[in-house]
Amino acid sequence: MLARFRERNEAAVIRQHRVIRSEFPRFDDMKTVRLFAPSSSPMLQGFASELRWRFAESDRYELLDLPADSLEQADVTLAVMDDPMVASRLPIVRRSYQDFIGLIYIGEPGSGEGAKVVRAYEAGLTVMANLAIDVEGTGDDSNELLLTLVTPERGIETVVGTKRVAAEGEPDSDSSCGPTAELFDELFLTLVRRSDVTYIDDNVVSTDLAADLCAGTAVTASIQDVARRLDGLDLVPPAVPLDGLSGRARRRYFKVLGLRQISYGNMSAREPGRTGFWMTGRGVDKAALDVIGRDLVYIDRFDRDERAVYLRVPSGYDEARSSIDTSIHAVIYDAYPKIGSMIHIHAELDDIVYTDNHYPCGTVELCDSIVDGLSRTEDPDRTILGLTNHGLLITGADTEDAWSLVYARHAAIAPAGVA
Prior knowledge:
The chain has helices at residues 2-14, 42-57, 113-127, 181-195, 211-214, 218-232, 247-257, 326-335, 364-375, 399-408; strands at residues 31-36, 61-63, 76-81, 100-106, 131-137, 144-150, 156-162, 202-206, 266-270, 277-280, 296-303, 308-312, 341-345, 347-348, 384-387, 391-396, 414-415. The protein is an alpha/beta fold.
């Protein structure tokens, strides 16, 4: 699996400068950055020094100079430390979905992919991190570095490079023991792509869903049925790999994310004769989409200028929220009128078209990237598109049609983040 991720990442880097036209209004607010570096490792201090310099020189970020115990938060927070669990003792608070938190730490020698994912989530849950970067030496060459990047989408990406070597007689220092310029170029580009993004997170809820939709329709019944079939193939896994997590991390997971935040993925389908579509709700169990107004909501429209999703639900469900990826589905339906349904799962599949880069869920950048990726498939109306280090998006004429594409290749589909 690691080789497949690396090959895709290399292909994405080659295409990273291709301009993707966006239909969304852009906002150019500078983002603030805070850096914690409680590491005693000269190598990680090298990472920290390079990060400080890059962000200080960037015209997109403002590097804050704050005391280590300051409670002031930033748009982007990075913690560089020997042990990732140190993050829980730092004054880091993720104020909203828009904030980015990244952890960089020393990996455990010889640990496998599964162990790295569990360790990343164990630490990441303490501060709701967006990205965990495990750094370890590899092979016989002590200067070779293996960086394993783990995302909340259960994506895993690996980057291999080297660290700078101190000249003869020169003591180890921050400047002599950090990553090479080539390695840091790739790492910094990754941090920028994942932190300098625009989220589409506003939901405008109306509790006046049409009476003939309140009890569900043939379309919602089909979504519910396909959801159960996906669960039968283990394609709607928990949002984090619960196996291996400590009891404390599990409790925090359910406390912070809520008891309904059970599984990853989402589904949608147009309602015939109407302009809107059905969408899975935010943080619900995708294997049990039983309640209209909570598990499934009706999307009336999506306003690009406001970056807001307008949804209708039955009376009593005014706290409803649609999937963070609703805007993506709305834009795709607008661009491809023949697409009648979509399934998104966090899994991997070879021999398909993949998007150029990884972007966080619910962002303008991911939306643009997916629309661009679909344009490069043979038949956007009925296809399986790979989302780099994230998952798969399946399109079809209706939910059964999209399901048929999944089932035809389910033996080759590997759930993301599984060793």
